[in-house]
Structure formats: structure tokens, C-alpha cells
Specification:
The complex is a heterodimer of chains A (377) and B (104). By secondary structure, chain A is α+β, with helices and mostly antiparallel strands. Chain A contains seven helices and 18 strands. The chains are: A alpha+beta (377), B alpha+beta (104).
Chain lengths: 377, 104
């Protein structure tokens, strides 16, 4: 019988009471700028997203300050959103512009408007619990490939995750071993760098022979390996540049993995893919590859979700030396949950962590061999 | 707000100071094995780093515009481990090639 004081207990600190400060991607502008109001549940609130006749995308609190009507059930009229209850018209700046049945608009007729940014086809909204405007140096890097004809258009997925706080997905950026067990990849090189508001992950991987098609064909070629540079820019938006190495060519892709919190216990996960159209590859094949990559990633996230839904929050993870810098990542992530003037150097100072993959790779090679033997047996 | 917790792996083997002979930057580092390296920078150390001051190669790729790391510091950390100034937690001997082993 083990004595109680020898057991390691899971410790759980109080969860964050606020939502992260930073730019959050709400989706593709092309899907939201269709002249209709879109309801978005985010940051514990109900928001309305709409594009006026001027084409600009706006994000407002969904509840009309008159009698509480839900603007997302209303209608876009001109550059304004009209409340379905009494037709009060609200501009993208949050001001009431007109009340058709009133002589004038009352004083203080102003609702919450969220700072927005449309960049590379995506709509971003700035969340700041302190209510400050986005600092000029807190930006999302441009992705010039989006406007390049030699790249496919976005393929975009959205899924709602119930029963988990969005911080669970952020842990993935340092979790090397889960890429083998959950995502069927085989990391051979893995390094993290955190600095300022960015968290990088440099990962190279081998193809997994045990998950490859048994007989690779022209339309289903075997991936020999991958080279990836991924980074969170702020609390919720990750760009992942992945090169897939095939026998006779390399194909570059850019993946987005982003989320926004619905509330403390659910979030919306979105991911997008663009693929470089290589010389000698038809547009159709490039689109097909983007779609296939999307499916593979979707499958990977579904496996993540199954883990998140049943796992416990653990604030004192017991780590082996082959694990990544989980604690330091969480220290970095915490900067988005404290007031801007409470961010400490230890949260933002440059930190580097390179994993020794020797032992993991030995174990995984053996496991792959076993899987192959079982397949052929 | 809850304070960030320290890495459990540092309880028995904390970070140790390493100086870069190239620029004098002082960082703390840790090696759990010959091929694992942790480096904690401070902003004065980063400001001092010569490699850091060099412009990162232009790139149209969003994630390739960041400073990938300082090769001089990387060498300094390895050197500190070889000289025994920086502990290597695994206790494994430094891997040498067979030819060298034959002529100690």
C-alpha cells in the first residue's frame, strides 16, 4: 500500500476570469461580408458582424442599447445595422445614426464597437479587457502568398469545441510527443522559441510508413517528410508554414490554426490552408492537395478534441526531459491574461528550448516497425 | 492573478549561467543531454548579441522574418558543457567518433 504523501496529485489553479488580449480571427472576410448580419458568440458575449454598403466589416455588441433587440437578427440598411425591434440604425463606429420614427437621436446613443482589421482575406477583431486600442506594434504578419496566383485560395474549416478552455489548444505548440501519438507524424527535430508576443515551433518530421497508403500512386503519393515553421502571433492566431517532401518534389503549404473563445468552457476553432501551385502540377491537383491536407488536419484536430473533452486540467504537469517547455509556454501565454502594465519580462523575454529527439525516435521507429509487421502479418 | 509556476524539471537541476565569448551576453542555460538545450535570455543579453543585431535575411514568408538563434551562443553553451562548467543531466559521456576513441 502506497502512503498518501508519496502520490503525486493533480493541481488545478483557478481558471482565467477574462479573455485574452489580442487580435482574434473571426473567419474569412468573404464569408462575413455578404451584406447580412452575422451572429458571433465570442468573449462571453453576443456580437454582430456586418459589412455596410461601403464594404467595410464592423463588429458591434449584438444587443441594441434601446430596448435590447438582437441586432444580429436585424438587417443591414446602407452602412448601418438596423435593429429588428424598432429599426434603430447603428453605424460601424458604434454610434446610433438614425431612429426613423424620432425627431433626433438621444445623447449617449453609443454601443460597444470592436476594433477590426481585414488582412489577407481574414477578419480580425481586437479584444482587450482594459478597453485599450491595439498598439501599433502588436500585429499579425502579412501572408503575401494569399494574393499570389501561384497559390490556391483559402480552404477554411470551422468547428465549435464544447467543454474545453481554449488554452488547451495552445499547449500543443510545445507538445512534441503528441504529434506522434495524436497526429501520426514523426518529429525528428523540435525546437521552440518564445519572444515578445510570438511563440515559434520549428519541427522537421519523417513520413510514417505505417500510416502511408500501402501502395502509393500518382494521386496518392507517399510523404517522405515535412519541414515546418509554426508560430503563434498573439494568443490565438497561428501561422504554420509546412513543406511536404515527396519523392520527386517539395510542396509548400501555409496553414492557419486559430481560435476565439465563446466563453470559459468553449471555443471556436478555425483552420485554413493554401497550397503552392508548383510548375507541372495542374490547378486542379493543387486544389485537390489543399483539400486532402485539410482533411488530414481536420482528422488530427478531431483526435485532439477527443482528448480535450475527457482530459483534466493540470497546472502541475509531470514532465520528462523529452517533453517540451510546457511551463515556459504557459508563462508566455499568461501575458495575454494580465493588464498590459502587469506583463513581466519573464513572460516576454526570449526563451529557446531544443528537444533531444534521439530516444523518442528510437522508440517510435520500433513502434512503426511493429505496426508494419502487424499490417503484413 | 496566479503566478506562473516554475518548470518541475528545474527543481533538481536549475538553469546555470553561461557567457558568450563573442559578445559577452550572459544567459542561463540547461542541458538534459548533449542534444537538448534550454536557453533563457534577458533583454540586456539580447541587446548585446552581435548576431541579433544583424538583419535577418529578407523573406516573403511570414514566419521566416524572425531571429532563429545565435550560432556563437550555441557554440558557447556546448563548450561550457564540454568543459564541465555546464552540467549535462543525462550523465552520458560526450559522443566522439570511433577514430578519436582509438587514440585517446
Amino acid at each position: 500500500m502506497t502512503r498518501n504523501d508519496e502520490i503525486r496529485y493533480i493541481e488545478v489553479d483557478a481558471g482565467p476570469r477574462r479573455f485574452a488580449r489580442g487580435w482574434h480571427c473571426l473567419g474569412l472576410a468573404r464569408d462575413l461580408a455578404d451584406g447580412k448580419p452575422h451572429q458571433v458568440a465570442a468573449f462571453g458575449q453576443k456580437l454582430v458582424v456586418f459589412a455596410g454598403a461601403d464594404g467595410g466589416l464592423n463588429v458591434l455588441d449584438a444587443y441594441c442599447r434601446h430596448m435590447g433587440g438582437d441586432l444580429s437578427q436585424g438587417e443591414v440598411k446602407g452602412d448601418e445595422i438596423a435593429c429588428p425591434f424598432h429599426d434603430w440604425r447603428w453605424g460601424g463606429d458604434g454610434r446610433c445614426k438614425k431612429i426613423p420614427y424620432a425627431r433626433r437621436v438621444p445623447l449617449r446613443a453609443r454601443t460597444a464597437a470592436w476594433p477590426t482589421m481585414v488582412q489577407d482575406g481574414m477578419l480580425f477583431v481586437w479584444n482587450d479587457p482594459e478597453g485599450n486600442a491595439p498598439p501599433a506594434d502588436v500585429t499579425i504578419p502579412r501572408i503575401p502568398q494569399v494574393d499570389d496566383d501561384r497559390w490556391t485560395d483559402w480552404i477554411w474549416y470551422e468547428t465549435v469545441i464544447e467543454g474545453a478552455n481554449c488554452r488547451e489548444i495552445v499547449d500543443n505548440v510545445v507538445d512534441m510527443a503528441h504529434f506522434f501519438y495524436i497526429h501520426y507524424s514523426f518529429p525528428t527535430y523540435f525546437k521552440n522559441v518564445f519572444e515578445g508576443t510570438s511563440a515559434y515551433q520549428y519541427m522537421n518530421g519523417d513520413g510514417r510508413e505505417d500510416v502511408r497508403p500501402a501502395t502509393p500512386s500518382k494521386n496518392n503519393p507517399a510523404v517522405l517528410g515535412t519541414t515546418s515553421v509554426a508560430a503563434y502571433h498573439g494568443p490565438s492566431f497561428m501561422i504554420d508554414e509546412v513543406t511536404y517532401h515527396y519523392e520527386d518534389l517539395d510542396v509548400d503549404t501555409i496553414l492557419i490554426n486559430c481560435h476565439y473563445p465563446i466563453d470559459e468552457n468553449s471555443f471556436v476553432l478555425q483552420y485554413g490552408i493554401i497550397v503552392e501551385k508548383k510548375d507541372g502540377i495542374s490547378d486542379e491537383d493543387a486544389e485537390l492537395m489543399a483539400a486532402k491536407t485539410g482533411k488530414f488536419i481536420k482528422y488530427g484536430f478531431e483526435q485532439d478534441v477527443a482528448i480535450w473533452k475527457s482530459k483534466a486540467r493540470i497546472d502541475n504537469p509531470l514532465l520528462c526531459e523529452e517533453d517540451g517547455p510546457v511551463y515556459q509556454l504557459r508563462r508566455w501565454y499568461q501575458q495575454f491574461y494580465v493588464d498590459a502594465d502587469a506583463v513581466t519580462p519573464e513572460m516576454t523575454d526570449r526563451f529557446e528550448f531544443e528537444i533531444d529527439t534521439t530516444r523518442p525516435n528510437e522508440a517510435w521507429r520500433a513502434e512503426v516497425e511493429q505496426n508494419l509487421a502487424a499490417r503484413h502479418g | 492573478m496566479i503566478e506562473p509556476r516554475p518548470d518541475v524539471r528545474l527543481e533538481d537541476a536549475p538553469m546555470q549561467p553561461v557567457d558568450c565569448p563573442s559578445c559577452g551576453a550572459q544567459v542561463t542555460a540547461r542541458k538534459s543531454s548533449w542534444d537538448q538545450t534550454t536557453v533563457q535570455w534577458t533583454s540586456p543579453a539580447l541587446a548585446q548579441c552581435l548576431e541579433r543585431r544583424r538583419a535577418v535575411e529578407e523573406s516573403d514568408r511570414p514566419n521566416r522574418r524572425a531571429f532563429p538563434g545565435c550560432p556563437a551562443l550555441r557554440e558557447a553553451v556546448r563548450e561550457a558543457a564540454v568543459r564541465g562548467i555546464l552540467d549535462v543531466q543525462s550523465g552520458e559521456p560526450l559522443k566522439t567518433n570511433p577514430a578519436q576513441e582509438a587514440h585517446p
